[in-house]
Amino acid sequence: MANDGQPTVGPGDSGEAVSQAQRALRRTPDTTLAVDGVYGPLTETATKEFQQSQGLPQTGVVDEATWKALPDGNPMPVLRQGSRGEAVRSLQRILTLGAFGLWETTPQGVDGIFGPNTAAAVRAFQTWAGITADGVVGQRTWDAPLALEFMVGLQHTVGVAPVAEP
User: Fold this and answer.
1) How many CA atoms lie within 13 A of 19 on its CB side?
2) pLDDT per residue over 63-76, tens digit each?
3) pTM metric for this prediction
4) Distance (Å, whole) CA 39 – CA 42
5) 36-40, 64-68, 71-75, 78-82: least confidently modelled range
6) Residues 54, 34 contacting (CB under 8 angstroms)
7) What's the rounded Cα separation, in Å, for the pair 108 and 121?
8) Which pick of 38, 138, 147, 155 has the fewest CB atoms within 10 Å?
9) Nearest to 158 by CA among 74, 87, 83
10) Domains, the chain, ranges and CATH?
11) DSSP states of 65-116 as a string?
């Protein structure tokens, strides 16, 4: 299981384990939770709500039982020009389907190859989402308002499915 061996995290904690818990909670799908690595009141509330939905004690702390119930909290892959594979293909589909009336620029095809047209579509999406438009799909882009990671598919999280890099 992807969350095995994670330490218990709760209010006041910070670091990668908290980020992993936040990513997992975003995928419940509480897509509004920020992934900032700081276990604050919003993370505590999201944890309690998730625990309640799973019939777990509502402690607000991500303990072993909560980790086991949460979806995979690993990060999504970083995609950029030259990346290839199913994660790119899924990204291209979402960028194409969502473009109409929003960011307007599409990858001009779904071929699983992150080329200049896909980079242009990513930059258009990033501008629309109000984040730095660098054409690279890193965690900040995955976390953008439409929760791209949720729509592209969590099977592409790092360490779960191989993603071909250039």
Assistant:
1) 10
2) 999 999 998 888 88
3) 0.73
4) 8
5) 71-75
6) no
7) 9
8) 155
9) 74
10) 16-69 (no CATH), 86-156 (1.10.101)
11) HHHHHSPP-PPPPPB-TT-BSHHHHHHHHHHHHHHTTTT----SS-SSB--H
